Structure prediction request, 432 residues.
Amino acid sequence: MGELRVHSALVTGANRGIGLGLVQHLLALPNPPEWVFAGCRDPKGQRAQELQKLASKHPNLVIVPLEVTDPASIKAAAASVGERLKGSGLNLLINNAGIAKTNSLDTETLDNMSQLFTTNTIAPLLLGQAFLPLLKKAAQGSPGSGMSCSKAAIVNMSSIGGSIKEMYLWEAAHCVAYRCSKAALNMLTRCQSMGYREHGILCVALHPGWVQTDMGNAAGYTELQKLASKHPNLVIVPLEVTDPTSIRAAAASVGERLKGSGLNLLINNAGIARANTIDNETLKDMSEVYTTNTIAPLLLGQAFLPLLKKAAQENPGSGLSCSKAAIINISSTAGSIQDLYLWQYGQALSYRCSKAALNMLTRCQSMGYREHGIFCVALHPGWVKTDMGGTLEDKSRVTVDESVGGMLKVLSNLSEKDSGAFLNWEGKVMAW
Ligand SMILES: NC(=O)c1ccc[n+]([C@@H]2O[C@H](COP(=O)([O-])OP(=O)(O)OC[C@H]3O[C@@H](n4cnc5c(N)ncnc54)[C@H](OP(=O)(O)O)[C@@H]3O)[C@@H](O)[C@H]2O)c1
Prediction:
């Protein structure tokens, strides 16, 4: 694999998120660029502080005022970069600045569509035009045939959200303006690649993954918020399950909302997985996965016990059930010591051990909480098509709807004799 070796690079929207990450990584290259230009629309603002700090340590980092929706600002940026480069060209233009809104097909507006199209699609076109002379110069100044990012390139930060074929996560969020702007950006990238090929400029659209930035986090949260806005009986509870203080605060706020009545069902669903093998498993990963998948369900059981007990007392009649008071631990067949399910597909050591331990915890909870009238069960949801479930196509895989529908049906049919069991989403008893 060749190493990225550029004399100069410009990143737009470089003060936070992926843009800031790109700047940091460019500066940390074994052979860092002589010039990294960080485009930022408000260099003196609060959100540029991290970038300013970085610039004070790296004399080769230059912050360039750049509002990508303003042609005058783009022209001024191209002029100031040109001046700084003193006759040499710009190797890499990364059109990273972008915005997203979560409007649905019904709520999308002219204003929103125009704003996103201007920032995400028109700006990369204008930036390509304005920096073309410098990119051409870089291509001419770099010897050797062929095109590359080290020579002269435009990289447009696109998104899988713009894939017309995938219609990625449509059910979770329509984001019509964002999807259309990125599909259009993909087309622009093809146009640029056709038009600028003769100048030796490589053009590519890049999907960065679903990244934990302001934009990426907002996209992950809004579907739940949208649901809450439609259902007054849905309450979003801030809860970091590995933080005992957060667990206590969540129990207090749920208790307050319930105004003296109990909580019937605690579903410990939050979980993480690492794809580590027996050779590269680490103390850190083992601890993190165990904390989230095993210790958190224990602490949540403890913190919510008073509310679960209250629910059990409020429901007269003998026997335990999920309609009365129950803890449901979402486990996995990967934690079955007997089955060692799909070992060939992935060893996932920390995950397997954490879920085997969660099964034991479920048995312990069922023993300890039986006297309080609380039912406890470990459920394997199936191999479900989620981020954790991965992308492998297999006929045994189920959708979230199938899995959840099945589990709720199973829960409704369980009775006292099932407390402490390990079952799957279809009600089948799983091997320990
Ligand atoms: N995060 C993800 O999961 C994800 C997934 C797929 C694609 N992407 C793409 O990756 C790129 C970066 O995303 P991100 O997650 O890092 O987003 P982010 O955290 O929201 O950061 C966006 C950056 O763009 C800048 N920006 C927005 N409008 C601008 C304008 N008119 N002029 C100049 N700068 C402007 C912002 O500057 P201010 O601070 O001044 O607002 C900020 O620096 C975007 O093109 C996005 O569509 C992200």
